[in-house]
Amino acid sequence: MNDTLTATTSADFIEQAEQVMAAPSCEMREYRLFGPPGTGKTTTLKRWIGRAAERFGPEAVIATSFSRAAAAELVGRDLPISADQIGTLHSLAYRALDGPRIAEANLEQWNRDYPDLRLTPAKRSKADLDEPPAEADAEGAAEGDVLLQELSRLRGLMIPEEGWPARIRHFAEKWTEYKRQHGLLDFTDLIQAALHDVHAAPGRPAVIFADESQDLSPLQFALLRKWGREAEYLVICGDDDQTIYGWTGASPDSMLDPPLPASQIRVLEQSHRVPRAVHGLAESIIRRVARRQPKQYRPRDADGRCEFLHATSMRPGRILDLVEACAGRGQTVMLLASCGYMLQPIIAGLRKRGIPYHNPYRTTNGAWNPIRKDKPGSAANRVLALIDPLTGAKEHWTARDAALWTEWLSSKGLLKPDGKSYFARFSPEAKITLAELGDIFLPVPWMDFCSAYGADYPDLLRWWRARLMSSVQERAEFPVAVALARGPQALKDTPKVIVGTIHSVKGGQADVVIILPDLSRAAAAEYERRGEGHDSIVRTFYVGVTRARQSVYLAEPAGRMAFRW
Fold first, then answer.
1. For the domain 25-97+199-267, what is the CATH superfamily, name and number?
2. Model pTM score
3. What pLDDT digit, counting tens, does each position of 336-377 carry?
4. DSSP structure class, residue 270
């Protein structure tokens, strides 16, 4: 494996990869499907995959996608091919290389040896290879994460080492030696090694479908087209106007080149999501980029709304008022920014008002998903375990319920010595009566509890909140606030409000989208320079705007560094 790694980082590799990319498309029967926002690209792709499976057999078709979310959506479409034949290019390369050890998941020694270049460990099981790497937040990322991201971008763009900045070359020397010593491959190595050593895609398919292709780097396209030449057909699906993963090396040129005959290009024209007002804004934005596939793209038959909102991320009062009003009408709302840290004041406001929110596209981000009903011991489940008998959701407490909400209580001056272990003697579903509950409390606190219990669930909830251990008070604060402000059902229903970066919600939609125009210092510099950096930022806000099914609200910038609508 180490020999392969050395070979794939050499000048010979760069030359070989460039030859692969420059090969005439007629060597493989490449087709391109362009799907602007809301035009049903995934539905069309499902239909094409079905036809390919009928013609060549289900075992002769594979579908690859940029992200785990997109791959999961394809799996959920009940395709006529096995789930094992659907995955990201990284996961296919991982399989083709017999499952090498992944560097980003094995950083213990690196972080000990280079504390000033610490890297954030990735939870990299095989399934996690289907998750695109997150952008290192320029305002708060560790130096090591920023350097590795830039190194991966340069390698993804297939820029020779002599063209790298000096600090990247110095970092790369240490990183390459670390991988060599420990027998590791990083994510970029997976693609390079597969390009160098693996002649055909796993299973030698007759047809390869590549979804979300606009977000693949030139290096990934080189591997895809190499494997495509061993297949009957390679179908490239995506939308160059939605190329927003620039930090991974993605460039629309990879999807647009080499030129193809018009007969091998299909553009989906009718949006089923974007109304006329939002469509008009989106078109005015995307026309600013220098190069794109010409498209006839029509809005759905609805007027929609596009308005300026006199509020900023630092003064979010009107934003929060609008969110409450829209959610109160049953509308879904997206709160979007170009960087996650820009959302912090708004998230603080949502928490203060007890407005439930989540991000179903980035469920591992705890700050964006504070109500975790999928985890039995979550704060939300403890709140519900306490108050469900008072709201009629349950007839009584079970031993499991009682153990959940009592576990977070502060014992001192409140519980008897064996109070927290008391319910272990019961079966989890055993009924716990009020008298049995009284066995765990000291006399005076028990009287206080009974008084709160005899009132209503808000009093009981406030009683519980006031007696929590200090270590869990912050975790409990938001679900308690939600239950008090919106009622217990708000902890059970799917939140109407989605928060996140524009990148995190790509592929999603909401009735109402509220966008902050602010840019990080690095992004603002790229935006003013023009060129590909400028175009990448333009495409990012195009993606944000086109998440809206009904209305878009454009917030004011909090400072001078901002996108100009």
1. P-loop containing nucleotide triphosphate hydrolases (3.40.50.300)
2. 0.87
3. 999 999 999 999 999 999 999 999 988 888 899 999 888 889
4. B
